[in-house]
Amino acid sequence: MTAERRDNQLRKQVRNAFETNGVKVMGLILFVLLLALLFGGLGFAIHALWVVAVVVFIAWLIGFGVARGEGAGGRARWYRW
User: Fold this and answer.
1) CA–CA separation, 35 and 41 (whole Å)
2) What is the rounded CA–CA span in Å between residue 54 and residue 57?
3) Most confident listed range (1-10, 17-26, 54-63)
4) Alpha carbon distance 21, 31 (integer Å)
5) pLDDT at position 73
6) pLDDT tens for each residue of 31-45
7) Residue spans of alpha helices (H) in the chain
């Protein structure tokens, strides 16, 4: 086996090792970025849902207070039926 042939085989082995590891590293990077995007999106959605929940709760409290004021002359009822 000549030195040139050995060098060519060694270069091929090194190139193949880097290509395989490169694919694994790229997949890992994409997976981490996808997780970050997913958790970031979920965090924003949860925050937005909390804001909506607070607004609905305030509207419910206002409605509850207005409904109490309607029954000033008769029996006060919190239900409508």
Assistant:
1) 10
2) 5
3) 54-63
4) 15
5) 54
6) 889 988 888 888 888
7) 3-70
